[in-house]
Amino acid sequence: MKIDLLTDPAGMVPYCTDWRGRFTGQPIAIAFPKSTAEVHAVVRACRAHRIPIVTQGGNTGLSGGATPDSSASQLLLNLSKLNHIRSIDLENATITVEAGATLEQVQQQAKARGLLFPVDLTARGSATIGGLLATNAGGTAVIRYGNARRQCLGLEVVTASGEIWSGLRGLRKDNTGYDLRDLYIGSEGTLGVITAAVLALEPAPKGLCTAWVEVETISKAIALLQETKQQLGSLLTAFELMSPTALAPVLEYFPEQAGPLRNERFSKNTPLQSGPYFVLIESSSQVSQAHAQEGLEQSLAKGLEQELVLDASTAQSLAQAESFWHLREQITMAAAEDGPQIKLDVALPISRIDDFCKEMSQALEQALPGVRLSNFGHLGDGNLHFNLAAPKEWLTGLPRIERHAKAKGFVEEHEPSLRRLVHDAVMSRGGSISAEHGLGQLRRDEAAHYKSPVELALMRSIKQALDPMGLFNPGKVL
Ligand code: 2HG
Ligand code: ZN
Fold it and tell me: Which of 47, 371, 376, 421 is deepest in the core (most CB within 10 A)?
C-alpha cells in the first residue's frame, strides 16, 4: 500500500493555515489517503510511533480545528482524496459517501435524482462531509432541516484505538444502546477519524421563493420571524438576519454584488452604521412554485400590515434569488478583505436576542469606541455571527497588507476582553458560545471557562476512554 505523502515544506504551506488566516502550524507531513484501508494504515503507523493526528477536510473551518500546531511533530491527515460516492438507495432516500466528498458533490448527486441534500452553506464547493459532521455544521437551512447531525444516519470511523467501526446503517430508528454515531458527530477529530457516512436525502421542492426584506429593528425582525413561522409552517426554509454593518464591507469590496441594495439610498454611499436591518427569507413548497410564492407574499403582506416590514421584494427569477443569496453569502469574504475580526458564533433563546443585542451595542461602544459590530446570521435558529471589527478609522486609507496587520493587532489586543464581555452576556441568558463553527482551538478555553466541572469531567472521561494516548487532534475542543 502506497499512501500519498507530502513532506516538502513549500508544498505543505496551503494546508497549514486555516481559511481565515488566524492559525498557522507546521506538520511533520501531510498524508492523503484514498481509502478507508489507507486511513487505517496511517492511524496504526501513527499509534506505533506516537505521532499525533490532525484530520483535515476542505480546510474551510472557522475555529482552527483542522490546523496543526507548530511543533512539526503532528501528522496532517487530509481526506480530500477519500471522496467517492459509495452508493445511493433511492427507496430508502439515503446516500453513502466518503468523508472527503464535498457538500456540493453530495448536493449534485441528490439533485440529479430529484432529491435534496438540505445542508447548505457558502463553502459548499470545498467543505467536506467529514468536516461538516466533525463540526456538526449548521448553515442556512437549519430552521427547516436541522444541522448536519440530523441528516446523518450512520458512520464509518477509524477509531483512535486503530480499528474500523462500520456503523454505516441507513436507519431512521436505531435504539441499540449508546449512540456512537452522535458521539463522533461534533467531536472535531478528537475521538477518531470519520471516513464515510450514510446521509438522509429529502424530496426536492417543486417551488422556491426568496425575499429580501427591510425591517427597522431586530425586535421587528423577531416579530416577523414569529409571524412568518405561523403563516408558512414547514414551507419556511431560511430566515437570515443581516445588520447594515455586516453588509457594508460587501458594498465596499464587492460593489458588483450589491444586488437588492442597488437602490436610491445605498447607491449614494450612505454609511451603513445604524439600522435598518435586512432579512432574507426563503420558502419552499412540495406542491408548486405558486404555492411557495403565494405563501411568502401573503406572509410579507401581513408583515407590512402589522408594520413589521419597511420594504420587501420577492425574487421574480432564479437569477434574482441568487443575487439575494450572493449578497448574504459574501459577508464573510468581504469581512476577510477588511482584515482579521474577532469571530463570535453565539446561540441564544430567540426571546433573549433583542435585549442581548441592545445591551451589547451599548457595552461594546463603551468598551472600545468605534468598534464595528458585524451582526448577522441564522436568526431563525437563534444563531448570530456577532463578529467584531476594528474601528473603521483605524484602517481607512491603509494599503491591504498594513490594513490587515492593523486589524490583526486589534484582534490580538482586544479579543480576550471583548469576547468575554459578549460571552458573559450570552451565558447569562442561557445561550451558547459556539453554535455551528465548532470550538477548535479558537474557543477551547472559552468553553472550559463556562462549562460546569461535571460537564468537563464527563467530556474528559469520554476522551480518555476513546483516545487514551491523546493522539487525536490534541489541543482542540478540550
Ligand atoms: C455564515 O453563516 C457562516 O455565513 C460564516 O457561518 C460566518 O463569517 C462568519 O462568521
Ligand atoms: Zn453561519
Answer: 376
Half-sphere exposure (Cβ direction) of 44: Cα atoms closer than 13 Å: 8
**Cα separation, 341 vs 408, whole angstroms:** 8
Rounded to the nearest whole angstrom, what is the distance from the C-alpha of residue 346 to the centroid of ligand 2?
A: 10
DSSP symbols for 254-307: -GGG-GGG-SHHHHTT----S--EEEEEEEEESS-HHHHHHHHHHHHHHHHHTT
**All three cell numbers of 366:** 463603551
Nearest protein Cα to ligand 1, atom 5? 332
| Neighbour count for residue 207 (Cβ, 10 Å) | 18
Whether the bond between 369 and the residue before it is cis, its omega within 30 degrees of 0, is no
User: 138 CA distance to ligand 2 centroid (A)?
Assistant: 7
How far CA 222 is from CA of 5, 115, 217, 454, 462, in Å, comes to: 51, 32, 9, 34, 38
Mutate to test the pocket of ligand 1, among 280, 422, 437 (most ligand atoms within 8 A of CB): 437
Local confidence pLDDT in tens for the 478 residues of the chain: 899 999 999 999 999 999 989 999 999 999 999 999 999 999 999 999 999 999 999 999 999 999 999 999 999 999 999 999 999 999 999 999 999 999 999 999 999 999 999 999 999 999 999 999 999 999 999 999 999 999 999 999 999 999 999 999 999 999 999 999 999 999 999 999 999 999 999 999 999 999 999 999 999 999 999 999 999 999 999 999 999 999 989 988 998 888 888 654 544 444 444 668 999 999 999 999 999 999 999 999 999 999 999 999 999 999 999 999 999 999 999 999 999 999 999 999 999 999 999 999 999 999 999 999 999 999 999 999 999 999 999 999 999 999 999 999 999 999 999 999 999 999 999 999 999 999 999 999 999 999 999 999 999 999 999 999 999 999 999 9
Give the three-class secondary structure for 117: coil
Which residue type is seen at 386?
F
Which ligand 1 atom is the nearest neighbour of the CA of 140? 2
Going from the Cα of 90 to the center of ligand 2, the distance in angstroms, rounded, reads 30
State which amino acid sits at residue 91: E
Q: For ligand 1, pick from 18, 103, 121 the residue to mutate: most ligand atoms within 8 Å of CB.
A: 121
